[in-house]
Amino acid sequence: MTGEPQAPPPLDDDAYRYAFEHSPVAMTLTLLSGQVLENDAFCRMLGYSHEELAGRTWQQLTHPDDVAESAREMGALRAGAKDCFRLLKRYLHKDGSVIWGDLSTVLRRDAAGEPLYFVTTVSDVTEHQQVVAALRTSEERLEQSQRVGRMGHYVLDVATGTWTCSAALDDIFGIGPGYERTVQGWLGIVHPAERETMAAYLRDHVLRDGRLFDRDYRIVRVADGAERWVHGFGELEHDDAGDVVHMFGVIEDISARKEVEQALRESEERHRTLFESMAQGVVYHDADGHITAANPAAERIIGLTLDQMRGLTSMDPRWRALREDGSDLPGEEHPLTVARLTGKPVRDVVTAVFNPTSASTAGSR
């Protein structure tokens, strides 16, 4: 031992051969004819033995859809347009499955600069690609579900006041890629009549007080000026120091629901007007036969106020119900009782009840 640094042995053909054959990384030497010479790791990656790969070309081992791109890159090396290339491409496994390879290729030339063969190293990234594909599919499904559900998501950077969002939310807002995605930009979409209120709601209720964003409001779509109703929901996210950094949320187009609610209110108002103004008496009963509502005409005909009638049933003896011929009508034969017990409508039955106010009987059908 001299204590002096030992020089590394010279790299000869045997050293290169040993490194090639025993490398844990898949490697190939590809002749200009296309024939492939492979190491053990490459065989294991594709499930072949050396004997099975003897005489095979790189085109036969490459997915058909990736052959053209590989040929272009190899042609660029031969032409001297580049020194090396890196490519993500698919190989065909012996069992027919696809193997994704992240490969790097250089071209070895002789002393005169003439091409000899391509040297390629390949990393199996199939599992990674499968994860990427699954993530992409998940994102596409999420985007599709948001479009179908008329709902989009957003992330607000509280420090900068800027936000990013899904394509589905772009569609709801009617905005394109160049739209200013800031708080002021969002307020520009909010209906003018609600702009000041919504600005205060975000500033005070949500960001200052640390509460959820949970509110219906109107917007005016940028693309066509259409007025829409949306429901915004957002949750604040904090850093390790407890400071608010983001708000993540969803915005749903609820215009259709609002239209239904408005139509229902208008229908109820029309029904209420008709109910209260019609000359015919109308009495509502619950499933057990107790009176729950009556219009003014019914109060006049029966001679009792709604408060006096509420809770009574058709079988109450105080009604003194009569048949059309003037005979007593037992409660169990009352049309309401029959309809309630049988579940079938009762029509064209004339009855009468005693009106205590006028001391007379009033007919009903």
Folded structure, characterized:
Helix 6 (126-148) packs parallel to helix 7. The protein has helices spanning 13-22, 40-46, 50-53, 58-61, 67-78, 126-148, 167-173, 183-189, 195-208, 255-277, 296-302, 306-309, 335-342, and strands spanning 26-31, 36-38, 84-92, 98-109, 115-124, 151-157, 162-165, 213-220, 227-238, 244-253, 283-285, 291-294, 322-323, 351-355, 360-364. It has 365 residues and is an alpha+beta fold. It contains 13 helices and 15 strands. The radius of gyration is 41 Å and the shape is elongated. It is 36% helix and 27% strand. A hairpin with a 4-residue loop joins strand 1 and strand 2. The protein has three domains: 13-124, Beta-Lactamase (2-Layer Sandwich), CATH 3.30.450.20; 142-253, Beta-Lactamase (2-Layer Sandwich); 279-364, Beta-Lactamase, CATH 3.30.450.
Secondary-structure blueprint:
Blueprint: H1 13-22, E1 26-31, E2 36-38, H2 40-46, H3 50-53, H4 58-61, H5 67-78, E3 84-92, E4 98-109, E5 115-124, H6 126-148, E6 151-157, E7 162-165, H7 167-173, H8 183-189, H9 195-208, E8 213-220, E9 227-238, E10 244-253, H10 255-277, E11 283-285, E12 291-294, H11 296-302, H12 306-309, E13 322-323, H13 335-342, E14 351-355, E15 360-364
Antiparallel strand pairs: 1-2, 1-5, 3-4, 4-5, 6-7, 6-10, 8-9, 9-10, 11-12, 13-14, 14-15
